[in-house]
Design a protein that fits this description.
This protein is α/β, with parallel strands linked by helices. It is 31% helix and 19% strand. Bound molecules: D-xylitol-5-phosphate and zinc ion.
Length: 217
């Protein structure tokens, strides 16, 4: 199946030094950056939006920016995120009214298309549109906050998708770290998001290496 990538989430890093925190992740071996956008409506929390991403982009021109859009009306920010330099635009299916139209818009703006599923959303919701996505993001916590406990029962979604879509990028997000990576790898996810387990570690490179080792073997 597709190649394995580790994408740290900087949600719980020191956001007043965002570029430094991102560089630290890259130097620690991150393959991409998972950037959590929250609007206070789709989730009960706020983070940042495209103006911050636009400032970050010139400081690290070659890094893949994976935008996790935890927002209502996800169609609203497609052009601004593309213009800011985002590479992947992952919207939540629960917030989307017209899936084909949004996927087309994202693709036409030059970004890869991701669809996210909250823990309570069955995988069947997206099956009719499976051709339209580059990435499916399976949430293993309720979106909104870092540092929550991993929901192992979400692995049945990952297994189902991996069995039926061998070439699909399957991303897992929430509570993933050295203690939970093995079931994630076993289920067949290949894009691994990890926040506090990496950013809170004294040696992030060690944690990234450990996660990589688990998904690649
Ligand atoms: C949760 C975010 C996640 C999360 C990851 O709403 O989408 O990216 O912050 O952090 P950990 O790994 O600490 O759960
Ligand atoms: Zn996320």
């Amino acid at each position: 199946h597709p190649c394995c990538k580790i994408g740290p989430s900087i949600l719980c890093a020191d956001l007043s030094c965002l570029a430094d925190e991102c560089r630290k992740m890259i130097h620690s071996g991150a393959d991409y950056l998972h950037l959590d956008v929250m609007d206070g409506h789709f989730v009960p929390n706020l983070t940042f939006g495209h103006p911050i991403v636009k400032c970050l982009r010139p400081k690290m021109p070659d890094i893949y920016f994976d935008m996790h859009m935890m927002v209502q009306n996800p169609e609203k920010w497609v052009e601004s995120m593309a213009d800011a330099g985002a590479n992947q635009y992952t919207f939540h299916v629960e917030a989307c009214e017209d899936i084909p139209a949004l996927c087309r818009k994202i693709q036409e703006s030059g970004m890869r298309v991701g669809v996210g599923l909250k823990p309570g959303t069955p995988v069947e919701t997206i099956l009719p549109y499976s051709d339209l996505f580059d990435v499916v993001l399976i949430m293993t916590v309720e979106p909104g906050f870092g540092g929550q406990s991993f929901m192992e029962d979400m692995m049945s979604k990952v297994q189902y998708l991996r069995t039926n879509f061998p070439y699909l990028d399957i991303e897992v997000d929430g509570g993933v770290g050295p203690n939970t990576i093995d079931v994630v790898a076993e289920a067949g996810a290949n894009m691994i998001v990890s926040g506090t387990a990496i950013t809170g570690a004294s040696d992030p490179s060690q944690v990234i290496a450990l996660l990589r080792n688990s998904v690649e073997n």
